[in-house]
């Protein structure tokens, strides 16, 4: 598949997720976008939890095209393979986080509840995309034309890493949902910009890499 088509599919993932998330929020009763995390759109008592699950799964599948796109643009070497693996983990863990839902205490895996598994997988998925944001500019460090984008990536990576601290330790529990949405917005902005830059505006062949 040509880079431009992969880039368009990847860039469509965040808008798709946003639209479905808005629909899921509007039909969920007693839900606050400011204090409640997005995972709570699948929590017990929420009507039509499958709507948000659809958004997560659809996003995870569309974003998978970022893997081969990065692999191609980094020269199809070991660094590109590593980035592809991170994209795969990011998407797969996201799908599993939709399967194992937040707020359910029933046993799901050994002695761990469904809620425990969800929390672990969701953090694993987030860690994968943060690593992707930091490592992709390094893998493309020889591309002089991408200097501004590398600074942009560093800024996004630092922003998400710093903002993740108060989110994880719940410094402001009344704003937990808002913090998470800021994290999602930052990572998805990076995905859209990176996909379009590499796939649409930066089409020349990549140098070989060992």
Write a brief caption for the model.
The protein has helices spanning 3-27, 49-63, 66-73, 78-99, 114-139, 147-168, 176-199; strands at 107-109, 112-113. The protein is mainly α and 210 residues long.
Describe this structure as you would to a colleague.
With 210 residues, the chain is mainly α. The protein has one domain (3-199). Helix content is 68%, strand content 2%. It is built from seven helices and two strands, in the order ααααββααα. The protein has helices at residues 3-27, 49-63, 66-73, 78-99, 114-139, 147-168, 176-199, and strands at residues 107-109, 112-113. It has a two-stranded antiparallel ribbon. A hairpin with a 2-residue loop joins strand 1 (107-109) and strand 2 (112-113). The longest helix is centred in the middle third of the chain and has 26 residues, at 114-139. It is globular. The model is unreliable at 204-210 (pLDDT under 50).
Distance between the termini: 23 Å
Order of helices and strands: HHHHEEHHH
Total helices: the number is 7
Order of strands across the biggest sheet? 1-2
Please count the beta strands (DSSP E, at least 2 residues each). Answer: 2
Q: What is the radius of gyration? A: 18 Å
**Biggest sheet overview:** 2 strands, antiparallel
Mean pLDDT comes to 93
């Amino acid at each position: 598949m040509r880079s431009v088509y992969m880039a368009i599919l990847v860039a469509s993932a965040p808008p798709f997720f946003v639209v479905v998330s808005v629909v899921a929020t509007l039909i969920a009763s007693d839900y606050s976008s400011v204090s409640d995390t997005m995972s709570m759109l699948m929590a017990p008592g929420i009507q039509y939890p499958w709507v948000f699950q659809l958004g997560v799964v659809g996003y995870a599948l569309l974003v998978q095209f970022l893997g081969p796109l990065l692999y191609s643009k980094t020269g199809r070497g070991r660094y590109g393979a590593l980035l592809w693996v991170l994209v795969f983990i990011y998407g797969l863990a996201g799908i599993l986080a939709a399967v194992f839902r937040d707020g359910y205490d029933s046993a799901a895996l050994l002695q761990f509840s469904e809620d425990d598994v969800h929390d672990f997988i969701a953090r694993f998925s987030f860690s994968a995309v943060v690593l992707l944001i930091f490592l992709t500019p390094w893998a493309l460090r020889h591309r002089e034309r991408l200097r501004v984008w590398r600074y942009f990536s560093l800024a996004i990576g630092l922003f998400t890493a710093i903002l993740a601290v108060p989110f994880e330790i719940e410094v402001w529990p009344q704003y937990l949902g808002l913090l998470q949405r800021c994290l999602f917005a930052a990572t998805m902005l990076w995905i859209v910009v990176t996909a379009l830059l590499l796939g649409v505006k930066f089409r020349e062949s990549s140098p070989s890499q060992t």
